[in-house]
Amino acid sequence: MKLNIVLADDHQMFRHALRALLEKEPHLNIVAEAADGEALLRIIGEQAVDIVCIDIGMPGMNGIEATRRLLALRPEIRVIGLSAYSDRQFVIDLLNAGALGYVTKAEASEELLRAIHHVQQGRTYLCPDVSGAVASALRFDTDLRASSHTLTARERQVLQLIAEGHTSARIAERLHIAASTVEVHRRNIMRKLGLHNVVELTRYAIHSGISPVVDDGA
Amino acid sequence: MKLNIVLADDHQMFRHALRALLEKEPHLNIVAEAADGEALLRIIGEQAVDIVCIDIGMPGMNGIEATRRLLALRPEIRVIGLSAYSDRQFVIDLLNAGALGYVTKAEASEELLRAIHHVQQGRTYLCPDVSGAVASALRFDTDLRASSHTLTARERQVLQLIAEGHTSARIAERLHIAASTVEVHRRNIMRKLGLHNVVELTRYAIHSGISPVVDDGA
DNA sequence: TTCGGCATACCGGTTTACCGGTAGTTCGCG
DNA sequence: CGCGAACTACCGGTAAACCGGTATGCCGAA
């Protein structure tokens, strides 16, 4: 029986290339690709999916948020996070969202195949450099889950859009809420994190992995 | 006769995937991969290479600098820039460095094949979204080749302070100049780079290395 | 020497961010 | 049930950013 896999990444070229690579494995079946979180949620609502490989650094709904919503709809799906970065907080957040695997793009593609093999059996898999980072962090912080910020899902969503350079008005349109509400969210975020302007919010979002370092378009 | 191609990207997974994809083309021969500029220069000194696909956003020696040095050693090699973003300045700089092609990762992989086909014949190829960005820039700036988008030393200094979260007033104090002058600098920076708010300035400063993202030991 | 680039500085105006409140709804939990 | 958390929404006000323009002195290149 073949494994049905969905690839989610904002770079079409990376998706195509990864598809070409995974299709060399006879037991894998790439059933769909998604360029963003919204497309991904549509896809998993339409067809049978076993494993989702999802990029963390996607514009709009990011990979962590998408994972959260995806698993709320289909808890049986195994999620593997793909990322360019190995930030500690980043990994923790994704695992808390319910993902089973985490592999950085700097690793060899064999690591992804290994992750697929592990999560298929319900086991967790972290690629070497990530598991090392998490392990070293555990030595200093006994309870990573409860520590750090505690932004709500909505707040993370707003923060990401702020860090992408959108004004409150545009964010409000995007989320179908009032601009005043967006400003309340921003103020709550700033209060929780002890930050005082959008530059600091942007830096926090980038460093924490909520927003990728670079985004496309001009 | 097969085309000898080298792939340069800091993400091993992307290189492997791209190799799998390009190897489906019978006339292409992937002879080597490089994770950074130094490795790339070593490779082209050791074997026959026709085309190099190089990522712009590599740590250490970036793609533009690597292209410059590569073509100084082997001017006959055709270089195609691969990038996650379509920033105008990067396109201009890369073309000035001597590259013939520029394709963003957000584009389909067919765009890369098209670029390979074009540069093989010595022709320039820019993928649609990039050529659009360059064309729109041409309307406002008659001479892009002269790299008029280069920031002055003072502008870089101001940009760094902006990206650290300081207001114009504070920056003015720090530099012992008037706040109005700081604002002129900021506007000139934004005009040169095609950016429109401090969030975009912050992101630019971070990914261009003007302002570092402090990594807490990960 | 004329020209352009750079840094300096100010004017006026619009938009957005930032800060302080208040307050309604929903939803889950003890 | 009552309570708190989260999300929603508005009010008023100040500060800062953003967008035009104009202008001066300096310096190096054509």
Model regions low in confidence, pLDDT < 50 over at least 5 residues of chain A: 138-148
What is the CATH fold-level name of the largest domain in chain A? Answer: Rossmann fold
**Helix vs. strand class of chain A:** alpha/beta
Which two protein chains have the largest interface (Cβ within 8 Å of the partner's Cβ), and how many residues from each? A-B, 48 and 50 residues
Order of helices and strands of chain A: EHEHEHEHEHEHHHHH
> Main β-sheet of chain A: number of strands, strand sense, barrel status?
6 strands, parallel
Top CATH class of the largest domain in chain A: Alpha Beta
- Counting DSSP E segments of at least 2 residues, the number of strands of chain A comes to 6
Ends distance of chain A: 44 Å
User: What share of residues are in beta strands of chain A?
Assistant: 5-15%
Q: What's the Cα radius of gyration of chain A?
A: 17 Å
- Per CATH, the architecture of the largest domain in chain A is 3-Layer(aba) Sandwich
Protein name (chains A, B): LuxR family transcriptional regulator
Domain Response regulatory (chains A, B): 4-120
Modified residues (4-aspartylphosphate) (chains A, B): 55
GO molecular function (chains A, B): DNA binding
List the helices and strands and how they pair.
The structure is a homodimer of 218-residue chains.
Chain A: E1 3-8, H1 12-22, E2 28-34, H2 37-46, E3 51-55, H3 63-73, E4 78-83, H4 88-96, E5 101-104, H5 109-120, E6 125-126, H6 128-138, H7 153-163, H8 168-175, H9 179-193, H10 198-208
Chain A binds a DNA duplex (30 and 30 nucleotides) through helix 7 and helix 9.
